[in-house]
Amino acid sequence: METNPLKITELVLRDAHQSLLATRMRTEDMLPIAEKLDQVGFFSLEMWGGATFDTCIRFLNEDPWERARALKKKMPNTPFQMLLRGQNTVGYRHYADDIVERFVKQSVDVGINIFRIFDALNDFRNIETAVNTVKKCGETVEGCISYTVSPFHNIELYLKMGTRLEEMGSDILCIKDMAGLLTPDVTKTLVTELKKNIKIPIHLHTHATTGLVGMNMQCAIEAGVDMVDTAISSLSMGTSHYATECIVAALKDTPRDTGLDLNLLEEINNYFTEVRKNYAEFESDFKGVDINILKSQIPGGMISNMENQLREQNALDKLEEVLKEVPRVRKDMGYPPLVTPTSQIVGSQATLNVLTGERYKIITKETRQCVLGNYGKLPAPIDEELMNKVSADGKVTDCRPADLLDPEWGTVCKELGDQYTSEEDRLTYALFPKVALKFFEARGKPQPKAAAAQTNAPVAAAPAGSAVYSVRVNGKDYTVEVAAGGAASPAPAVTAPAALPVAAPAASNGSPLVAPLPGSIFSMKCKQGDAVNEGDTILVMESMKMESEITAHQSGTIQSVLVKEGDSVQTGDELVIIG
User: Fold this and answer.
1) What is the pTM of this model?
2) Could you tell me whether strands 519-524 and 537-543 are parallel, antiparallel, or unpaired per DSSP bridges?
3) In Å, what is the CA distance from 27 to each residue of 84, 85, 129, 176?
């Protein structure tokens, strides 16, 4: 019997927990099982890229470069795979070529072997630098088709993309179905036709969200797909992926037998069953099947993160409304495939449209840049009304967006001076400047695990017989003095934390500009005494990882500035007083 074993890429250390647990799995929960993962014989193990880099420094106080190194020591035999967003690397904007090149080289140095490289718009000009750099480093390029469904996407277009990716030097072609939009018939046709048109191996990445994943996998296998992505069963299905053990069991004693040991996989599964319990607070409420995802097209990794963002903003009840708004925004923006960063751009814009009660009342900087062609060429025409709000002349960028960027490395080195001089720290800063500086300051220090309405350890000295605690209630931080025995003192001292401004009373002849959404103050564009006109940008807020310009609601003079860069604010908080 002629055999053609199906190769398996295991996703438990990256996309599985990104899809189910908002990317929060810590390195300390990966290392104890690493040696067993290394024994399985996977084609590759995806353990980096996507949102892991951002989450490590933003939420986990972990160095992502150290994660890769630590895992490689435990898993020397299994090729490491990462997801690379082309010119966006692991960030949310286009970076200059010198940053992309340095990032790829450093990723190789810490142990990455296979680079799954994609562009959110399938504009392959945006992956050229990354592809060429990986080839120069002697590692494997897996070029991606970002699969989506729209009036402007079809099999013929995807075949052209596959041929182009092979011509560019891809060693493997990936069909990246990030939202689980494939159907059995399309899967079989697409894999069959691609096998006829290209010579490189074909790798299928798809999610279980719509419930069609098992049938799609079977059709792909019958059509000759070479590799598939799966997740160990305790972190599979839902918004994640098909279970590894199911594929292994289904193909046993067939010509496509994977050869993997189910007993060893069972040990690994039992381990992650316990690990998952550590992240219950980040669990998505979505645990079953939702065929409506075929309409919203929201990727698996986006749903749990979107739920978490809405929860932090006390707006989880708006989720259904946001899910309905996403396809409308996507159509307005020219039907981009929904994958990072376009999934975040479209998702955040849809969320703003819902939270503010008015479509495009606030347009994020990233939405503007995407509409103007600064992320690449969009698949379809832009909605005329949206374009008019974004641009007065309707001109869009038609060259490769990175061609408009000056080299950035020199500026990074100048800004950091003699601080944080390692290549890795400087790359981290280049990708996420403000988040990186906060991370560098906190790195190596123990971090409290804040939870809603729970107290942390005492955070300040207090009078005898009492203690001071940091408390988070409904997303807001407070400092509370508690008397001995746990009872609140007769006049409990409850104050806003130092990082949060205490709004000054509005001047009698002034009018407050209030925060239209929860977030943090990214940058201030005004100071006390400045004259402003209605519509001028007063400050920039960061919310859901996107930047939004907050404009003056009236003309006048800035009488008071009530916030500063880095402050956290809630909807309705006063920002400045204009009189």
Assistant:
1) 0.80
2) antiparallel
3) 20, 22, 30, 26
